[in-house]
Amino acid sequence: MLSYKMDNKGVSTITRTEQRSRNSKLNFLLVIFGILARNPTAVGVGFLAHSGQDHDLKWKSIKKATFYSASSNITVSAGYGEKGIVFCTKENYDSVSGFVRAMCNGSCQIRDE
Fold first, then answer.
1. CB burial class (10 A; 0-12, 13-18, 19+) of residue 78?
2. Do 40 and 91 fall into the same domain?
3. 4 within some domain
4. In angstroms, rounded to a whole number, what is the distance separating the alpha carbons of residues 64 and 110?
C-alpha cells in the first residue's frame, strides 16, 4: 500500500507502515538467504528493495509525465531509472492530473495515453 504527497517541491511516494514492516522482513530474509546461498545478486536485491521503499522526485528533475486516464495512473520520469507511478482513484484523477500538469508547465514533456 502506498501513499503520495505532492507539494510545490515534488512527488513523494511513501510506503504505509504495515506494508513497510512486511517488506522489511521479506527483504531481510532475502539478504540472509542470499548470504547463506552465497548469491550476491540476492543480497544486492534485498538491500536495494529495502532502500527504495520511499521515493522522492523533485519537480525540477522531472523530464516527462505520462497520463493514463483510462486506468487513472500518472507516470513521472526524472531520468534513467528514476520513475514514479501515481495511482489515483477515478474521483481524484482530474484534480491530481491538473496539479501535475500545472507543476510541469513547460519544464517537462507531457503525454496523454
1. buried
2. no
3. no
4. 6
For 43-89, what is each residue's pLDDT tens digit? 888 877 766 667 778 888 888 899 999 999 998 888 787 888 888 99
What is the rounded distance in angstroms from the CA atom of residue 106 to the CA atom of residue 30? 43
- Please state, in angstroms and rounded to a whole number, the distance separating the CA atoms of residues 71 and 85: 12
Q: Which helix (H) or strand (E) covers residue 63, if one does?
A: none
Same domain for 63 and 84, yes or no, is yes
Evaluate whether 52 touches 61 at the Cβ level (below 8 Å).
Answer: no
Q: Provide CB contacts within 8 A for 79, sequence distance 6+.
A: 61, 63
**pTM, rounded to two decimals:** 0.69
